[in-house]
Amino acid sequence: MWTADWWWEIQELLPRGSTLAPIIISTDKTQLTRFSGDKQAWPVYLTISNIEKGVRWSPSSRATILIGYIPVTKLEIFSKAKRATVSHQLFHDCMRAILEPLCAAGVDGVKMDCADGFVRRMFPVLAAYIADYPEQCLVACCRENSCPRCLVPPKRRGEPVNSTLHDPGETLQVIVDQSQNKFPVKFVDQNLRPINPFWAGFPHCNIFSCMTPDLLHELHNGVFGDHIVKWSTKAATGGDQEIDQRGISLTSKWTGNECKNMEKVFLGILAQATDPAIQRAAATIIDFIYYAHFETHCDESLARLDAAWAAFHKDKSIFLELEIRKHFDINKLHKLKHYVDSIRSRGTADGFNTENTERLHIDFAKAGYWVTNKVRYTRQMTVWLARQEAIYKFGTYLQWAVPGYIVNPNSTNSDNNELEEEDDAVPVPHPQPDDPDSDDEGELDGNMSSPSPLPSHVPKNPSFPRVPVATIVSEFHAPDFLIKHDDFLESNSINPRHQPDDNSAFSVYKRLSIPLPQISEVTSHIVYDTIRAVRGEPGKLTPKGIIPAKEGRFDTVLVHKSPPGHQAHPTEGKTYIP
């Protein structure tokens, strides 16, 4: 955030020698019961932008802390007409009680000890508020057919228009006038709610500009998963049946990871099955999603992000022509307009993704609930969390005081990495030329597709150990297996100890994870892509019943065959392997 505009604008308003501490607040109601029940928790998280975003969202770094729980109650003592208003006001009253110290600290500053040993006068200022769309409207005191950032009319949310942004001072005055029975016209025009907001009086705080993009709910699960996929499926020749043959519509519930994986292949699914205008509209949304995910932005990338948004509005009319949609007055679609402004003001969108807080729920809500007796569980959860924090602090002290002492890591605090679904994965070393040990009994454990020095990963145990070559050729549909095997050994200058033949046996895996080339603008982390090859199985009649047949699953692989150092078109020298 320190490279964005907002930080420097606020820094100029503070006394000389002051240090700004931008506060990031996140709230997200979560379900505690696993299969049934209505037990919920509403945690409030806090972190600061002085900490690098990759550190502050890492659970093991403990840079994001839990500062309270919002009560989750049905308020059955109130009538149905009053229940919503009372519930909204209860939220704001609780948030005011939690964040009230920020008011005085943001005006006068607070002397704090910093990690480098210096004492600085810090000015904590609310800079960003991470929440999904319903909670953003709750914080902004507007109804859920409105934008929490601007004054766009509900019936014009689907148009590429520039609307006036909310003004905190004006909004507060309109709410006050409404509470005094003056009934201002703007109260209705701006779709406001009669609530006393918690953010009133916060110094240097524009709560409306604090509403940052939500990549998970707005893009992956929202515009793409809930809208583009459904609209394109209706537009496909053959409809659901055609999409079923291409492998996506049978999934009942899409998670964020599934939507991300679908985005990689969705245009291929639409090819020759939909109108070219449908494909262009889907392509512009996917372009927008990938540009929005950049961890580093420049003027050119932001211009392309804005161009993708404009291109979608140019091509979206095809959905009206096919009578798939009657309008585009959709909140998540409208909010794409504010991404560029938010990134310029507060920093890249990946630093404010609600996907980060979803991971924190495990440590700060669900783990604590699972150890309670499920009765008045909130108090028990806070006690359990306090004890866990005390244990961690004491362990950290022992690690500092006792040479060689190592804190026993808590499994619930482990970071969520790209190989989470492969807990038993082991690295596969690269084959070394002229290494007699690189091939053992006709098997070669090497990186088959990536020139990256990082190792690929396969499961610890093969799915099919010691499969004869004849079976690989016939049942795994690899008639040129030995030929390609020999070509690979020759191209890598590897001399096998034993030359494989039709009588040799190989271990066969269903899954291989390879590291993708690192692109600094996209991510600073190592990203693995999983390639799956699962053969189909016929139905079986067993003593316990009938086991239905399973279809095979084979991921498409794009193999680069150009010689090293050769500069060519991105698709030149590539072979598609279905």
UniProtKB/TrEMBL annotation:
Acidic residues: bias regions? 434-444
| Pfam family membership, one | Plavaka
Residue ranges for the region (Disordered) are 411-462
Q: Which InterPro entries match?
A: Plavaka
Q: What is this protein called?
A: Uncharacterized protein
